Amino acid sequence: MGIFEDYVARIEEACGEERDFIVVFKYDKKGEVIAKILEKARIEKSISRVIFELTFRNVSFRLYGTGKAIFRNLKDKDELKNVLSDLLL
Amino acid sequence: MLDPYKIREDFPILKRKINNHPLIYFDSAATSQKPRQVIEVIKEFYEKHNANVHRGVHTLSQEASELYENAHEEVAEFINADGVKEIIFVRGTTEAINLVAYAWGLRNLKGEDEVLVTLMEHHSNIVPWEMLSKINGFQVKYVEVNHGETLNYEAFEDAISNRTKIVCFSHVSNVTGVVNDVKRIAKTAHDYGALTLVDGAQSVPHLPVNVKDLDVDFLAFSGHKMLGPTGIGVLYGKREVLEEMEPFHGGGEMIREVSFNSVTRRCSISWNDLPWKFEAGTPNICGGIGLMEAIRYLRRIGMENVRAHEEMLTEYTMQRMQECRKVKIYGPRDASVKCGIIPFNVDGLSSHDVALFLDNYGIMVRSGFHCAQPLHEIFKLKSSVRVSFYIYNTREEIDRFVEVLKEIERF
Question: What is the pTM of this model?
Answer without folding.
Answer: 0.95
